[in-house]
Amino acid sequence: MPGKTKRKFVSETIKYKKCYRAPILKVMTTMPYEYDPEALLQKFQKFYPKKWKELNERYKQYQGLDEFLVRCGKKRRYKHLSPPNFFKNLPIVKSVCSVKYKQQRQATFNEESIAKAEESMTNTINLLQPSPLLMQEVDPYYLEVYIAAYHKRGSTHSEKLEIISELRKFNTERTQLFFQKLNSSERNNHIRNIAFKHLQELSAFVRKCKGFKGKKKQYHLEKVNFEVSPQDLANLLSSNSLQSTKTFDCFVSHSYKDSLLISDLKKQLNKHDIHIYYDWSSDSDFLKRELTSEFTKIVLKERIKQSHRFLFVQTNNSVSERLEVKSLWVQMELDYAVEIGKEIHCLNLTEFPPLFSALELQNDNTELTKSSVSFIKTSIK
DSSP string of 9-34? Predict the structure, then answer.
């Protein structure tokens, strides 16, 4: 391993190991009378899931670098330990699992204090659990088109920010790799900081890169706020832009009061590689509620055109007892789908008859049957 690269990697690893000391000492307050490194690891995974995910991301990143070196005919350089082995070889883990430390701890062991610490840590981790992510966990078909457009010579700063805003809506290995590359090699400070903060939000392993040396050009220091409106998106959709190249597997029409339900549905469909459109996430940067206008209708109609399937989520929030659609926006979406001949299918979660052809559910809950999922996937691609 070249000396400079080795010193940099070793130095970073030493600093990284130190950040585990405080969390592990907190976990130790919940450990039983007898324990071993494996039991400590299980507790750590329970109380610090983000930290554990970060370690796994770090391992994947250095594994990827080693594999790249091998493909280039060179030797592995980093040889990062697997996450469990890395954890068990931490100095603080070896210390708290030593015979001497255990003897000292057992001499003052208090079962009641352990129970209180366990309860306190459990309550804390529950409070820190993030709200359901709006990001979809499936790569859209237009992903590579967007990435190619980002790297196209002559792309403006505003165009790059639009692409970044779009790819931040997805949490996949491919999009994480894109942001990792931006964080490490993008020469514009503004964009590089956006990539860094986004990766932090995902609990991905990421290092803050130093500024590039040498003379700073205008591009390096350029900064633009990505402030857009429904009118901007409507204009983009009517032109030969990236927005007009998008396609969606399924347009989901629903009441805004069912946001948690739609988030769960999104996760379920993403597991089957189905990419959905739901306005408050898919176009969250353009369709702000305070800017709702006729342009919003134009956008939604175009998104219905771009979607292979149309799914109406029928709940007590979207339909009344008289089977009338409560929301004018949902009614507009349904009317337009009928107007352009788009077949409408219904996820009926009410006691009333479905307004449209109903998809099958498993055990009368929100889980779609395999046949329903298969139906949504047909005619796609």
Answer: HHHHHHHHHHTTHHHHHHHHTT--SS
Mean pLDDT of the chain: 88
Q: Each residue of 92-124: pLDDT tens digit?
A: 999 999 999 999 999 999 999 999 999 888 877
Tell which residue, 354, 286, 285, has the closest CA to residue 315. 354
Domain boundary among 183, 198, 221: 221
Residue 138 lies inside a defined structural domain of this protein: no
Verify that 331 and 311 share a domain, yes or no.
Answer: yes
Do 200 and 74 share a structural domain?
Answer: no
* Assigned domain for 252 exists: yes
Cα–Cα distance for residue pair 33/110, rounded to 1 Å: 9
Calpha distance 344→310 (Å, rounded): 5
Q: Residue 129: what pLDDT?
A: 47
Of 119, 159, 333, 351, the catalytic one is 333
pLDDT of residue 294: 94
Percent of the chain exceeding pLDDT 90 equals 56
Q: Is 137 part of the annotated catalytic residue set?
A: no
Q: Are residues 294 and 199 in the same domain?
A: no
Give the contacts of 160 (CB within 8 A, at least 6 positions apart).
Answer: 150, 188, 191
- 75-82: long-range contacts, CB 8 A cutoff, minimum separation 24: 75/1, 77/1, 77/5, 77/9, 78/9
Residue 133 has pLDDT above 70, yes or no: no
Query: What SS3 class is residue 168?
Result: coil
Contacts of 281 (CB under 8 A, 6+ apart): 134, 135, 136, 169, 266
Domain hosting 366: range is 230-377
Q: Tokens 């070249």 identify what position?
A: 2
Beta carbons of 321 and 352 less than 8 angstroms apart = yes
Cα(24)–Cα(47) distance, integer angstroms: 10
The number of folded domains in the chain is 3
Q: Would you state the pLDDT for residue 1?
A: 46
* Listed residue (206, 20, 26, 13) closest to 125, CA to CA: 26
Q: pLDDT tens across 216-233, in order?
A: 666 667 777 778 899 999
Residue 357 host element (H or E): strand 357-358
Shared-domain flag, residues 34 and 163: no
pTM for the full model?
0.71
Four-point Cα dihedral 356, 359, 362, 364, nearest 10: 0
